[in-house]
């Protein structure tokens, strides 16, 4: 092993340990400290795009830990964290993915933390406290659910696929997304809408969904789950020939990924 690859492996191990620690601390804070009277602290793109005091507090907890452990890193967080950094490492954080679920007391929410080096995701952690599960991956080293290896379900026929998706916060986009899913639902086994992209991507990784797609996600929604899904054997991407992005995020095992990507292109799932 060269010195460079040894250094990279050491960096990956350090970033994983920090991501797991930060996600666990934020997850315990969110699970145990959720106020009974939790309300909406602010809205963003629309009246239903909400932020709670716990989103903000969770991001502050995570960024504080990162600043202590790796002060020269960059940070991008959903609730405003935006630090350039000088180390080449950037943390991408969703302090609560599934905020509306958390607000309503539904269990499907997670803390999502990814670490990128020069634009490539090296480490992804998605911690789902109400499931008692932590999904993790290190580039080139596989994906795990807690301590067990995660592997995608073998690709089924298109008509037997259980497909996850989600909807944005703007009424016009939701109407368009509903039109896409209206055409898709009779063509597949069924649709699931869990409310957390990070968990949906990890469910593909764990074989609990055959596929997932969504338009309108932000990097903090998919950064960690994308790596976890890929390390579990999924293909991820957007429109044909494009990486996943806000335009369109798709994850599925080979064989199903291509069929779903083609169908979504035909349905215009990549535009409002
Ligand atoms: C959510 C995503 C979900 C999407 C929601 C929302 P948030 O992220 O995880 O897949 O359908 O509209 O964007 O806002 O809870 O961090």
UniProtKB/TrEMBL annotation:
It catalyses: L-histidinol phosphate + H2O = L-histidinol + phosphate; a myo-inositol phosphate + H2O = myo-inositol + phosphate. One of its GO terms (molecular function) is inositol monophosphate 1-phosphatase activity. Its EC number is 3.1.3.25. It comes from the Bacteria. Mg(2+) binds at residues 78, 94, 96-97, 221. Keywords: Hydrolase, Magnesium, Metal-binding. It holds the Pfam family Inositol_P. SUPFAM superfamilies: Carbohydrate phosphatase. GO terms for biological process: inositol metabolic process; phosphatidylinositol phosphate biosynthetic process; signal transduction. PROSITE patterns: IMP_1, IMP_2. Pathway: Amino-acid biosynthesis; L-histidine biosynthesis; L-histidine from 5-phospho-alpha-D-ribose 1-diphosphate: step 8/9. CDD domains: IMPase. PANTHER family: INOSITOL MONOPHOSPHATASE, INOSITOL-1-MONOPHOSPHATASE-RELATED. Belongs to the inositol monophosphatase superfamily. Catalyzes the dephosphorylation of histidinol-phosphate to histidinol, the direct precursor of histidine. This is Inositol-1-monophosphatase. It comes from Streptomyces avermitilis.
